[in-house]
Specification:
heterodimer, A: mainly alpha, B: mainly alpha, 13 helices, 77% helix
Chain lengths: 326, 319
């Protein structure tokens, strides 16, 4: 599993030590960029993410812009990837779907991949005792729940309540744009994915903190009278960050896949807001599949190559930060 | 083995506590959303008086905590998980039993496919470590792991059913029919990469054992050494670990596979039950799966502890 002897300061080779780069982070980054596969994956992910981020500016059409005279058209200059049943531009819809993936993955990784596991892992490992017990048992229960069925259940029953809350907030603030922007859907998906996503990272970080707790620099900080938050975030956090990077890079593909799966089942992002789940669901219906397979193949190719890139990149990062883990 | 026994007892004692928490949380979540099974059942135009009467009959008009108390009492004292609102006159085990049986057989098929391809692929990669074949084999199956099952399924239907007309595009007409080919492939493919990697790692560890050197030293050819000595020692740990750990993934895959292809298994049934707000059925399935996952994890921990004595003393299994 984790290499407990890992220390960010230890040089990986004499050659690298001689050059003495600025920080362990830069050194890890340099080693990552030396791997050809990792660079290709990074470039691919960056390409997709950029396409998603600039979708509102760069997409030739809106995601819901219909032209019923031009339904099921093949590729042309006006529509590089053709149109769907309602004459909506396939390229634009895929770009906006990518935007959904960007929003959901970044929000979920920030909360469920970084904030929750780091805070809870540091607390559990350092405080020990009852705090440790409660956090671990909560994690154990969450980890033993059937994930996807629970996500379906929560999304299905909570959605109307969520929409209600968002409506209340709108009335209170006096600005009515949240509901139509699909904010409630995004927020719901991100919340449930984060809720179920923190356990693995928390366990890794906790294990690392347990081995660091007795180390001399922590004892020295304690002896010098440092407060618990200072020890947690100033002294322990930098030494668990590599694990956070590993955890995040390993989970990106799964997070992206979960949103797509939930939307496919009809409990994720609601139409007309675009998501790869909805695009694949549209393209997979028997009639469309038989006559216009491109409508399935385009989102399928994007999603598969994106998740493949995430998985390969995750492997490379794991290899660099925790050598011998696999 | 003393530490291990205490560990098992501790985990088993925690199981009822976990079930209590899970059942209460699920109970609240199902009832929190608007709409209840009676409103789903009665449709849009209904007699309000009859609606209230039926709700009252099932106790759905009581406060949630009180409803939970009643449910818990019946469940613990009588083993009665409450009525299903969609399938009346049948107990919950009668309803979900056949569905689970369908899914279990489908899962076994998928496991067989995964192991038949994954273990030889992993051993091959390990034996050829350092050559181009090693990363190629692992990378090849990593592609299949990266394609979401909801993409694989329509593609398989398009290829095998629409274009080649080899198999029916969906449905379920018995377990020994061609209708099982697409779901088996779709469910089995993503797991191969994991099995292959694990088999590769285990085999790499085995390749340097003394008994392998002895086998080579007594003049056995390389093929016999790999099959008779290395593979035999890699297969058991890989299979137990993978079966334990991949039950979760298999269930998630089953939810999509069964929903898309129209197979009457438990995955599709969960989805239908959530949409029908069939409270007690949802709760029963969630609890059953929680028990299954916890026991599977425990078995994996035990197997790992037995295989690797170093883990026994720490008592925390693979963590």
């Amino acid at each position: 599993m984790i290499d407990a002897t890992y220390a960010p300061g230890s040089p990986a080779s004499a050659e690298e030590a001689a050059r003495a780069p600025a920080s362990p982070f830069l050194r890890a980054l340099r080693r990552l960029l030396r791997k050809r596969i990792a660079v290709i994956c990074l470039a691919l992910i960056a390409l997709f993410y950029c396409a998603g981020i600039i979708a509102p500016l760069a997409a030739p059409y809106g995601y819901a812009e219909q032209n019923l005279d031009a339904s099921f058209e093949g590729p042309s200059w006006a529509h590089p990837l053709g149109t769907d049943r309602n004459g909506r531009d396939v390229l634009s819809r895929n770009m906006f779907a990518m935007r959904t993936t960007v929003v959901v993955t970044i929000a979920t990784v920030a909360a469920g991949g970084i904030v929750l596991p780091v805070t809870l892992g540091l607390l559990a490992g350092y405080a020990g005792g009852a705090v440790d017990w409660v956090i671990n048992r909560a994690g154990e229960i969450l980890a033993s729940l059937p994930g996807l069925p629970m996500l379906v259940l929560i999304s299905a029953t909570m959605r109307p309540r969520f929409n209600g809350w968002v409506g209340d907030v709108e009335d209170w603030v006096g600005w009515h744009g949240l509901t139509s922007s699909g904010f409630a859907d995004y927020f719901l998906i991100f919340s449930v994915l984060s809720l179920f996503g923190w356990v693995g990272g928390m366990r890794l970080i906790r294990a690392q903190v347990l081995t660091l707790r007795g180390s001399q620099y922590v004892l020295a900080a304690e002896a010098a009278g440092a407060s618990t938050p200072r020890i947690l975030f100033r002294h322990l956090l930098p030494n668990v960050l590599p694990l956070v990077v590993v955890g995040v890079s390993a989970s990106l593909g799964a997070v992206a896949g979960s949103e797509i799966g939930l939307t496919f089942l009809g409990v994720g992002i609601q139409p007309p807001h675009p998501s790869f789940g909805a695009l694949i669901s549209d393209g997979a219906s028997r009639i469309v599949l038989q006559n216009h397979p491109a409508l399935l193949l385009v989102p399928a190719a994007i999603v598969s190559s994106l998740i493949f890139a995430f998985n390969l990149l995750g492997d490379s990062i794991t290899d660099i930060i925790t050598p011998g883990a696999r | 083995m003393d530490g291990l026994a205490a560990y098992i007892v501790r985990r088993l004692l925690f199981l009822p506590v976990a079930l209590l928490v899970v059942s209460f949380a699920t109970f609240c979540i199902t009832r929190y959303g608007p709409g209840d099974p009676i409103s789903v059942y009665s449709g849009q135009y209904r007699d309000p008086e009859a609606f209230d009467r039926v709700r009252h009959k099932y106790g759905l008009d009581k406060p949630v905590v009180e409803q939970y108390g009643i449910w818990l009492k019946d469940a613990v004292l009588h083993g009665d998980l409450g009525p299903s609102f969609r399938y009346r006159d049948r107990t919950i085990p009668e309803i979900i039993g056949p569905k689970i049986w369908v899914s279990v057989r489908l899962g076994v098929y998928a496991f067989i496919l995964t192991f038949l391809i994954g273990i030889p692929a992993g051993i091959l990669a390990a034996v050829r470590q350092g050559t181009w074949l090693d990363p190629l084999v692992i990378g090849f199956f990593l592609i299949f792991q990266s394609i979401p099952i909801l993409v694989t399924l329509p593609l398989l239907v398009l290829g095998l059913s629409v274009k080649l007309d080899l198999v029916p595009p969906g449905g379920f007409d018995g377990i020994f029919t061609r209708s099982m080919i697409i779901p088996t492939i779709a469910l089995g493919l993503p797991g191969i990469a994991g099995v292959a990697r694990l088999a590769r790692a285990v085999t790499l560890g085995t390749l340097h054992e003394d008994f392998v050197r002895t086998a080579r030293a007594k003049g056995l050819d390389e093929g016999t050494v790999v099959v008779r000595h290395v593979a035999r020692n890699s297969v058991v740990p890989v299979m137990t670990t993978v079966i334990g750990l991949s039950i979760v993934g298999l269930l998630e895959g089953a939810l999509f596979t069964e929903t898309i292809l129209g197979i009457p298994g438990i995955g599709r049934f969960i989805f239908e039950s959530v949409n029908g707000r069939d409270y007690n059925v949802i709760l029963a399935i969630v609890l059953l799966m929680t028990v299954a996952f916890m026991l599977a994890n425990l078995v994996v921990d035990i197997v790992l502890a037995v295989l690797d004595p170093r883990l026994r003393t720490s008592g925390t299994g693979a963590r």
